[in-house]
Each structure stands twice: as structure tokens, then as C-alpha cells.
Amino acid sequence: MKHQNTYKNVFLWLVALVAINLLAANFFERIDLTRDQRYTLSPAAMEIVSDADSPIVIEVFLEGKFPSEFRRLRNETRQMLEEFSAYNSNIKFTFTNPLEESKDAEATAQEFYQQGMPPARVSVQENGKSSEALVFPWAVARLGDKEVQIPLLKNKLGATDEERVSSSVQQLEYAIANALNKLVYPRKKKVAVMRGNGELPDAQIASFIKTLQEYYFMAPFTLDSAAVNPQKTLQQLKGYDLIIEAKPTEAFTENEKYILDQYTMNGGKSLWLTEAVAMETDSLLNPSGRAFALPRDLNLGDFFFSYGIRINPVLINDIYSAPIILASGEGNNTRFNPYPWFYSPLTTSPNDHPIINNIEAVKFEYANQIDTLQNKLEKTILLSSSPQTRVEGTPREISLEMVSQEPDMASYKDGEQPLAVLLEGEFTSVYKNRIKPFEIKNPLDQSEETKMLVISDGDVIKNEVQRGKPLELGLERYTGNTYGNKEFLLNAVNYMLDDSGLIDIRSKEINIAFLDDQRTADEREKWQVINIILPLIILGLFAFGFNYFRKKKYLK
């Protein structure tokens, strides 16, 4: 009987184990006990992961010896990838050390730089001593012959390593999900880069357009035929999901405006980078070092006014700004030095909208003020100048002599000025209750739900060109500073065209706790003693108590 009960218990345990394994194989569930739910994937990310039906291998280069902050970034990256892999076994990842097989760190760094993955040089504080380390905060996701780079470290001007890592951890889920999105889903939507009204040349917008090509089909589009066959031009433009107007300098005709208006009425989305003042830094590079900033009329006043905004022909003079780089000396002795230049405002973000959440400051040049007007459209001010701003009317003389003049702080009292405004909702036609420039079938006076982003500076999308080759958008080649222009514009386009809600992941807030380096160095010996001696004391007390009670028990 006793043996029968034993066999019965063993059998029941085996049945229970088999049942548990069957349940575990068919029902998947993970429990995230963190306060900020950092390891719980967003619905948009889970949808992308579930659609990955072929193996995707992610190679992470965050391996090696580096500061504690970057070890935290490595660990957080590993845990996030484990979360993705847990939901789909097709997601595989490895961690490699780029310097493990190479003794020449600089050659490896140069190789990564040429591939568009610049390494980061960080300061290491250990035992009160400072040194420099090379970190490769990048990953590469591969699906077949397709490859996508994943930036793991976000740059922030003036930020400490802890702040940079904290900001980077905030965006880990978005960075990984965004890369998978580009690998899993084929491009479907089409973006038109507008031509024919004096927009920036191809070389000066190449950096951003190249990035957009990873997400969407891109093509140039001209309104030149609006004068002879506007109906056909409008019909062709409707085939695009979004248009980009990159710093037009020639006035729009009524036919062109009506085409753009009806494109919006049919649900088309648009990104406008336009300005109401004509002024370029190159105009100052003359013997006098002076130029005039003049109002520029693009015949778009009524166009934007009907939609609820107005771009004023004034200049933003902002204390919080990027420097201007001026050359001194001749020949081999030429030096490029930065000087304060208050006409290049570095914008702040008055809210936490997904487009601008956790991005670097965006650099403007000779930006204009935007007024928002009352109507039924939802308006979100994405970027604005700093509180220490002065609004200057035009015409106005601009001189390089300003770099040596102390600013009159008392005059910077105009406060934050809107520089980028997002419009969302149902737009009312500019030509409602007006004579139409030409006849079309089924003209619309009210649009369906759509979006428009207006930026009061065309140079936000402009990249520098060196020896005929475009540089990275937002990179200042002489100072090495990287501004958030590219990320801002890419987020904006993704937001306006994103049907999956992937951009909303950027709003996820994660709190990262770091050790105090100075306190760690000061109290190192104390905590070493505590960690070594205290366990021994506890173990000794336990042994003494165990022996004491054991003797007492058996003496009875």
C-alpha cells in the first residue's frame, strides 16, 4: 500500500509537470514589476515584433571595459532585447567588442565613422582618477541582405554622461522598434519634395532626404505646369501622402496655391519650411561684413491666415543660440573660431509632444515669429525661442561687428516666440466663398482629418556641403556639435504619416538611478569593509546561535 501511494504521488507530479509545460507553451505571459513599466513593450512595438516571420539578428557593439553609466546602458539594452526576443524567437541578438580583435582603436573608430556610426569618447572616473575611453554605442539589425543601424546613445549639448545615458534609455524601445519597423514592413507611402519655387537645391537637403528614403518613396514634384494644366497637376499631387516645401524663395501663383489648398482638402499632409525674411549668413561674407535683412513676400499670407497662423517678417534675436564660425589668418595659419551669434536660436520645447520629446536643441537661422490665430484647428507649438528673446523688425542691417558687442540684456524681454507649429484637424479651404483660380471637379471647402507642420525657417532642413558632398544634417563641422534638426524633422514626418502609433513610444518616461561618483570614491573603503565584515559577523552569529540551541536541545 505504501509503495502504491508513492507511485501514485510520483505519477501525479509527472502529470502536473506536463500540464504546466503545456500551459507555458500555449499561454505566454510576462510580469513587469518595475514602477515605470520599462520592460513592458508598447502595443505598437509588439505588433511589429509579431509580424517578424524571418530571423532578424541584432549585433550590439556595447561590449568591453567602459564607465558604469555605459555599463548601465549595455545592461538596459540587453534587457530590452531580451524582452523583444521573448515575444518572438525570430529576434536574436549578440554583443561584440569592436576592439577585442583590434589593437588599433583609432583605426576601428575611423572605420565606424565611415559607416555612419561615430564612436563616443567618454571620461572615466575611477578611484578619483580621470581617463578617456572609446565607446561604440551602436547596434546593427540585419534581415537577409537588408541592414539598419540603431543609435543607442543620444547626444545632448552640455549634458553629463549620466544625463546622456538616461536620455538614451528612455528611447531604447523606440530605437529598436523603429529599426525592426524598417526591416519588417516594406515602404508604401510616398513623399513629394516640391520644386519650381526656388527651394533649396538637392545637395543641401540630401542628408534628410536620404534618411527619409529608408521609410518612404521619395520623388521631386514641380508646380510648373499649374499655369497650363492645373487640373492634371492637382490630380498627380494627390498621389502623394505628404509634401515637403524646403525654403521656397519665389512667390506662389494663385493656381499653385489653389492646387496646394485642394491637396490639403483631400487629406494631404504637408511640411512647410518657409520664412518671411530674406537673409543669409553668406551675404555677410563681403569686405564690409554687412547685409540687409529684407521682407520676403511669397504670396502665402492669406494661405496660412486661413489655416490659423501668420508668419511675421521679423527676426528672432535670442541669447540662447548657436555660435557663428569665422575664419582668421591666411593659408596654413587659418583658424576657425566660434563667436556668439544671436540670430541662430537654439530652440526649446514648451511641451512633451512625441515629435520633440527628448531630442537635442534644434538650430534655426534668421527665424521668424509665428502668430497663432483662433479657429477650430488644434495648434501645438512644438518649438519656440528662449525667454530671453528680442523680436526685430525688417528691413534691418545685420553686421558681423555684432559678434564683439555685449548684448543689452534689458532689451531681451519679448519672451518665448513660436517657431514651429503643428496644425491638426479639419481645414477650411483658403478659397471658400472666393472666386476659384480655375475649375475642377468636386472642389472641397472642408478637408478630412489631416496635419500640417509650419516651420518659420527653411535652414532647419539645410545640411552643409563640403567638397561637393553633403554632411550630416545638424552637424557643425568646425565645433563638432550635433543639433537635433534631423531627428526633429524625421519625427515630424513619421508622426504625420505613422499609422502604427510607433512615434508614441517616444513619450514613455523611464527613471534611471545612478551612483554618485564622488561619494562612491569617498566612501569606497567604508562599504568594502561593510560588505566583507558584516556578512562574516552575521554568519558567525548564526553559527553561534545554531550551536547554542542545538546543545540546549540535546542536553535536555
Automatic annotation (TrEMBL):
Keywords carried by this UniProt record: Membrane, Transmembrane, Transmembrane helix
InterPro entries: ABC_transp_unknown, DUF7088, Motility-assoc_ABC-rel_GldG
Pfam families cross-referenced by the UniProt entry: ABC_transp_aux, DUF7088
Domain DUF7088: residue ranges: 36-141
Presence of keyword Membrane: yes
Chain ranges passing through the membrane: 527-549
Protein name per Swiss-Prot or TrEMBL: Protein involved in gliding motility GldG
NCBIfam families in alphabetical order: GldG (TIGR03521)
Residues of the ABC-type uncharacterised transport system domain: 188-492
Top-level lineage group: Bacteria
Keyword Transmembrane helix found: yes
